[in-house]
# Entry
Amino acid sequence: MQLVEKVIVCKLIEELDSAGFVPVKFWDGEEYQTIEWKADSTVTNKVQREKACIDAITSVDEGTLHFAPKSDLKGWGRLGVLLILGNGEDVISDYHCGNAEFSAAVDRVYKFIETN
# Structure
């Protein structure tokens, strides 16, 4: 994973967290990996959550990080971001959602990429 990709993925997790979404699963092309984290908002837990995501993502070249609303952790599957390593600043290849807040958070990450 390139440094720029790590920065973007961490920014994605941060923006979605502030919008009320947390990463819960990662599809690696063969199976879902559960993203383990504790249900509080301390800095330590946010760092552990980011590390768990990075570990899952770097296990393959491409996969989908699935998010769920903090209010409905079982409601994952409708909110996902396709990540392709090796694409540098284009690590976010696509995303699917039916949620305006989720979409707005991903759009903020795209703006972050454009301005940095």
Remarks:
- The CA atoms of residues 26 and 65 lie 5 Å apart.
- The beta strands are 21-27, 32-34, 62-69, 79-84, 92-96.
